[in-house]
Design goal:
The protein is mostly helical. The chain is about 65% helix and about 0% strand. The chain has one domain. The chain is globular and about 45 Å long.
Length: about 160
């Protein structure tokens, strides 16, 4: 999960300006995603997650291919983007909480892309024991990372 874990906070580091939704509203009158989801963040986050995954791959062979690393890295941000879309549809403003999904969106996004595009590797790599471990540990890691980002003034809220 390291590429997904790195891509999400990596996106925050970009402090991007160009929103992925180009400032447009959905047919419900609300922003599609919001100003916090930017092309710069998507690119930097994916790149940083990919680099972290490549380093691990070179020493361990854990991911099996660079494509799988990309799926995990980009997938983490894909999950975050989907979560943002859902929050806007539910009328939850940017920066406000959506418990459980805020912590696990990066897992669901990366797992979804891996399942669709690299199913055999995904099923081999994420047995029940590992999947449960990821689902339990991710919210704890997510909380710690967000508190750190808040204290470093990289985020406006500590969640």
């Amino acid at each position: 999960m390291l590429p997904a874990y790195i891509s999400s906070p990596g996106a925050v580091l970009s402090r991007g300006k160009m929103p992925i939704d180009l400032g447009k509203n959905f047919f419900d009158g609300r922003r599609i995603l919001g100003r916090g989801k930017t092309f710069e963040g998507l690119a930097l986050g994916t790149l940083l997650g990919f680099i972290a995954g490549v380093i691990v791959e070179l020493y361990s062979g854990l991911y099996g291919s660079y494509f799988n690393i990309f799926l995990l890295s980009f997938g983490g941000l894909f999950g975050d983007i989907c979560n943002s879309f859902l929050k806007r549809r539910l009328g939850i403003e940017q920066g406000k909480k959506l418990p459980v999904l805020d912590q696990l969106n990066l897992v669901f996004g990366s797992w979804f892309l891996c399942f669709v595009f690299s199913r055999d590797w995904f099923l081999e790599s994420f047995n029940w024991y590992i999947a449960i471990t990821v689902l339990v540990m991710t919210p704890l890691l997510h909380r710690a990372a967000n508190i750190a980002a808040y204290k470093l003034r990289l985020k406006d809220v500590p969640w």
